[in-house]
Design goal:
161 residues; 4 helices; 8 strands
């Protein structure tokens, strides 16, 4: 193969790789619900660096960084409910967390999770806007007529010297 053809093949390969990475950033990954949904339900280990990298790869960089979290805008569904934002903790606080805002009321989201994942979220009190908590520890809270679901854990202690 001539040097010219090798260069053209290399340029085309690079262009194809760029196009594939761009197309991948626009499409919802097939692993979104098991990966992010599992973390929100406290079914997996929480590693904020992992989730930041996963969301950045799938949806591009976070659109803001505030309140101890990186915020990602997206167009996705979890348990059949639309999700607009996912937040991942930064390392400024004592907790590691993953959170999402779903466009449904907390009781609707809790029922959708129970139906599709088998996990129940029970109201912790009889107030008009109670937190709903599952046995594994995920929490559903009211967020302006929407739901915020999150899983939070204290950071593990560093290894002993």
């Amino acid at each position: 193969m001539s040097v010219g053809r090798v260069r053209i093949a290399a340029v085309l390969g690079l262009a194809l790789a760029c196009a594939c990475s761009w197309a991948g950033a626009a499409a919802l990954p097939s692993t979104f619900e098991p990966t992010v949904g599992g973390a929100l339900l406290c079914r997996s280990q929480l590693d904020n660096a992992y989730f930041h990298a996963y969301l950045s790869t799938a949806f591009g960089p976070p659109y803001k960084h505030e309140q101890g979290a990186y915020w990602f805008k997206l167009d996705a569904t979890l348990w059949g409910k639309p999700v607009q934002e996912v937040m991942v903790s930064d390392d400024t606080g004592e907790l590691v967390f993953v959170a999402a805002v779903a466009d449904s009321k907390p009781d609707e989201l809790a029922e959708a999770i129970r139906t599709s994942a088998g996990i129940r979220h029970r109201a912790v009190d009889a107030s008009p806007y109670p937190l709903r908590v599952s046995n594994p520890g995920s929490v559903i809270a009211y967020q302006n007529n929407k739901s915020k679901i999150y899983c939070a854990r204290y950071k593990p202690l560093p290894p002993a010297p």
